[in-house]
Amino acid sequence: MGDEKHPNMEDQLLTRNERVLDLYDAKSSDLPDEEEESLLPILNSLEESEERYKEIDLIAEGGEKRVTRVHDHRLNRQIAMARAIKAKNRQDQEQFLREAQLEANLAHPNIVPVHNMGIDPEGVPFFTMELIPGDSLKTVIKELREGNEEYVRRYPLSVLLHLFLKICDAIAYAHSRNVLHLDIKPDNIRVGEFGEVFICDWGLARILYSDMTTTDTGTLDGDILNDMTQTGMLKGTPGFMAPEQTRSQGDKIFQTDIYAMGALLYNILTYELPVSGNSANELIENTKAGKIIPPHSRRKGAKIPRGLATVSIKAMALDPSDRYPSVVELRAEITRYLNGLPTQAERAGIGTRLSLLIKRHNQYAALLIFSLLLLAAVISVNMVKLNRQKAAAVSARVQAEKNFRLYREQQDEVAKLGIELSDTTHFTAQSGDYSKAREMIRALEIALDKNPEPQKRNDLLVKKGTAHFVLQEFNAASECFEESKPSKPIDLDSWQLSKKYATLKPNDRRMLSLQQATELVEETMSLNKAINYFYYYYIMRKPSPTPEAYLPLAMAMLDKVNRINPTTSKHPMKLEKRPNGHHLDLTGSSYQIFSLSGIGLLRINILEPLEPYSMDISNLPLLTLAEFKGLHVKELNMTGVKTSRRRILIKQLEEMGVQRVIMTTGDYPDDIVDELRSKIEIIDSESSSR
User: Fold this and answer.
1) Angle between helices 157-176 and 254-270 (to 10 degrees)
2) Residue 390: which domain range?
3) Residue 67 and residue 81 in contact, taking contact as beta carbons nearer than 8 Å
4) d(CA 344, CA 657)
5) What does residue 603 show for φ and ψ, rounded to 5 degrees?
6) Are 193 and 602 in contact (CB under 8 A)?
7) What is the pLDDT of residues 639-659, one digit of tens each?
8) H or E element: which one contains 653?
9) Is the pTM for the entire model greater than 0.85?
10) Which of 371, 400, 422 is the last residue of a domain?
11) 257 and 177 together in one domain
């Protein structure tokens, strides 16, 4: 009945729908050309005929390749580019590209990743890789040999040994892929600014053929990637080459790389090569003869641990069968030393073992010594009380047996640990360094794909959850924690924070605001590595805010570092903008620590983003200005500050860039004040107050 009243209603509705659809179907081509092009900057950059890479400066140049810093205008980042130097014919060019393809197929956190390879407009082959700021290990060892105080402070033996462990991890991984490096030396190892370690230059690498057949697409093909020109030719670095590598027809096996690792450890301990020679030929002849100079003779007066010296000597045995069977076992030796245990290579006697045992169990050792002294006192005071003497002797014997039993149990634990350390994924799970969190996540995912036992799987999930947490990927972190059900308070804290902030920030790719980041830091139970790395990544990724906007986050971090309750403390720290820049007033504050340690090998100064031009630290209870390292301050008021290491005060002020300082000159020796006056404007606070 309604249709009879409105016979044309359906036609009218269809016409209206078509008009509405026409509005939504309007094409972008209706926009002006210039406006449409401005909306497509990335696509336009890919369509431009401009060369993709633009050279910035030279990084290094060797006999085979030239490495430069370049800008990739497509991805808008700086990377390193290696270009062939001596590739005059197609065979040489092929060999250069073999190195790039081989290195690109070795995916490990301690091997430099290759991004791209190709032929440039001039017909020269190239490949690009990650740009690694920092020094080569060769530079580090050179500065240590020359006594550079900064390098001596940054690279004690324990730090160098942990770098060596990472090198072992990379070579063990390469060996698991049947790849030999054949040119392991300090010059081919990069040490990054944040404790990263990368092995470079795989130009001499060789793939060992395996009798096992496989359909794995990731298997490296030695027929394609091996250097066909190596047969009958001598290649390597004298001093680090194994004896069999110095012979043109010598077999290259895993122990060939293990020899180079031993030479590298020797170089770390002594700062010198393991063999002597005035020429390359003499070095090679001494290598063939096995004339290794004892480490203690190479660096007289230095305390070179005997356990490590014997490890390096065993790794460089003349007969490959006398060396370590694998890099994993060499790594386990270094781990034993770092854990206070004797290495197997040194064949420690009972005296050495007991000495190390006492260091590990000093409380039990103190108890044993006290018992022996008490026994001696009883014997000397009352010789006639034989029963007491026997009782004391029995007591001492029981204690000695108990300590020895503890020692044997420790040995059993170490043996078990050695087996676990043979698994490369276990090394990743034990690492507490999240400075390469993204790479750690990839390594942990590979380990989880291998279906490890339940306890190890939970440990790996906790590590992965923490890595996502420091990158602000709270949803991914919550999933890992939910599956692993951690029990440690620190991990539980990270779990609870992840669940909360996953709700506040559902998109893991977005970042927290400054206010949210400040609240997260304030809500943590206590300062821990996860919060340190969260802060580090936040500052690295967040576009630089104004100093005033950054101030609350800085104070929250300082409260955690200095263990101050923010609900009861007053914040006397003030930031004031002046004509010359920002003035930071710390007078009367309770803060004594201003930097974070444990970020790789670096210390991060919390105050740095405040960009203070001038600073007042009057009467702070500071023993040194080292806590302000990393700041650049032109004017400093340090009235009433008495540093304990006064001789390095001048150097610390110069590193901070201080041009004018207000101080109580009477607190320092006259010669230091006079030397300061020759370099910096000094105002005596006592004179000015009169």
Assistant:
1) 170
2) 350-422
3) yes
4) 50
5) -115, 130
6) yes
7) 988 887 777 888 899 999 999
8) helix 649-656
9) no
10) 422
11) yes
